[in-house]
Amino acid sequence: MNIKKIADEALEQSKVASLKRLIADADLTLKVQALSVTDNPPMPASKDIHDYYSWSPYSWPNPNAKDSLSYITKDGETNPETEKVSDKPLLRKMSVSVHTLALAYHFTKDKRYAQKSAELIRTWFLNPKTKMNPNLNFGQCKPGVEVGTPTGIIDSRWFILVIDAQEMLQGADVFQEAERRELKVWFNTFLNWLLTSEIGKEERKKKNNHGTWYAAQTAYYALYTGDNQLATKIVSDSKKFFDTQIDSMGRQIYELNRTKSYDYSLYNVHALITLAKVGSKVGIDLWHYNTDNGNSKNILESIKYLAGFVEPGSIWPFKQITDKAISLDVDDGGHFSVYYPYDLYSALLSYYHVYKDASLLHLLRKLSEGVAKENRANLLVFRK
Can you give the residue ranges of the Alginate lyase domain (predicted)? Predict the structure, then answer.
């Protein structure tokens, strides 16, 4: 039996199913109202409605406190009230919608998708009446306690999808050249804020997924805005994450004490994957970093380790209060923006695409017979 041939055929079938699902999602996304930080009534401390504003998701009212400005943290348990008053769901929905439409245009060349994607981008980033100020000074705050926190920078990782969408929209002629320049100016200003603000400097010091995603974002934005020298430096410096975060078994050691340790381990692997993708564009091979010295501190071994807990009956030896993120959808309402880019299935596809290792193909085949059959990663990883 040729396992590779069977798995490849299953992946090809999944690409067909994924494209059908993508077009259905994109058709629904055409009906989406343009999204903006100005849509959300709660105001940040600045009193500027253009400033991004979100609440710390794991903060809950302290039941033993006499006032309403005292909080306790329940790691991994999102307080639904924080979603209601945050701009974060809007940012996520906008980014995923933009990407959904751009990807649909890429495969179908139906200009309606490109035009709608451009409309969403203009509203969030360019229109003076609705655009977001390029900072996260008020991200993941605790009202009455903290105005904004470094951890809020993790919210903007979804902007990477917007930049990826820009590449797919290149031939659609839906932006004027002045608009393209203006969008790059926005991201350049945002990048400068990430690099120079006290909040950004603190987030850069984080040793766990927050530090990795900070590096992934800044590298991606630097590359997009044309600062290849900065992108190269960030990618080169990010080798420290491979050296310090991954142990000899491929485990993400700073994520193992979380209540959703499997998901956070996977989440961090995707930040490393993002850095490796940028590295591929600036001549630094992070995919194979640490593969020759025998210590297994690399993306390959981390994905293999996580994949070892897919089979029924396999017991993840650390705390995980929810189902593991093997192949997941995110539904932000209206069933139009269904896409979760940080699951195991997506990582497995990257693994196979880069390393050409057939040892985990049986898992890809098995997962692609279920919900993963329509996973958008089937289109993204092999996108030409």
Answer: 36-314
